[in-house]
Amino acid sequence: xxWVPLQNSGTDNIALPLGARExxxxxxxxxWDQNLERMRDLVLxxxxxxxxxxxxxxxxxxxxxxxxxxxxxxxxxxxxxSYATVNAMMQGTAVNANGLPxxxxxxxxxxxxxxTHNEGRNQKLYHNLQEYAKHYSWSGxxxxxxxxxxxxxxxxxxxxxxxxxxxxxPDLPTAPFFSREAQKHDxxxxxxxxxxxxxxxEAIYKAFSNCNLPQGWKVNSTPRGEWxxxxxxxxxxxxxxxxxxxxxxxxLLSSLRTFIGNNVxxxxxxxxxxxxxxxxxxxxxTNVRIRCHLGLKVPSNCELVVGxxxxxxxxxxxxxxxxxxxxxxxHKGKCx
Length: 336
Hints:
- The chain has helices spanning 18-77, 84-92, 119-134, 138-149, 151-156, 184-192, 194-205, 240-245, 247-255, and strands at 177-178, 217-220, 227-234, 237-238, 268-273, 277-282, 291-294, 302-306, 309-311, 318-321, 327-331.
- 41% of the residues lie in helices and 15% in strands.
């Protein structure tokens, strides 16, 4: 409300009689007294409503807030219970789909998350996944915790075409192969640096001319042929002696946006198949990652089959796939 002083349209002031001014002020005080009375009633009514009605709502909100804080603490600090299902699963998949031992799953390393079955390895798996999920959301941590706790139920309902050996996280995109567009930045970065990576690979591969298995290289048992790997990062851990031999390639890994090198499922290596080599059908450890193969030297008659779908590598190009699907690879060509 705005009080406007009375004014004359001309230059003369209007003088009100004394009685008229007294009546005007009296009416003004009566009007404001009524307004103040209404305001007081409104404030008292509001306070009464808070005391009588909103106390229940306030208590409900407080309980919900307390439950949320408890849930965050529970997810962030509770240890996995027994993980018997994970142990049984890892023990039960120590052979490939054809029942033949596969070198990739039988490395016998005391630090391998796939090949050991003690509680410590399961704790390591849980904590690595939890630390990784913290970068995204509280709900992500909850999904990781629930996924590990209920692995038996998830994997028992999975079709045989996709059964990761260590950990399955539900509700992720399911496809044997992925388009380069799914990881466009990283795929293009690797392809732009193809010659750099190739030159460092050729430098370390020359050592095979002096001995059967040079330092840093590992051989994987296969039913036919030879399969060699040279790891820069293995299960989230950097191999310093190998990385020093390929410094530019290792620096490229740190430039990738989606490389999970800080996780037990993070790997980066050079992989070589000699002619007439067959890698028998097997599953990878998890579906939470996409594997990326950059073709360095690809002769004819080489193929990767994932989930029953065959694909060929191409030199200087990235091939993205989910190795939690049943997959195999072979090289039936000649040396280059």
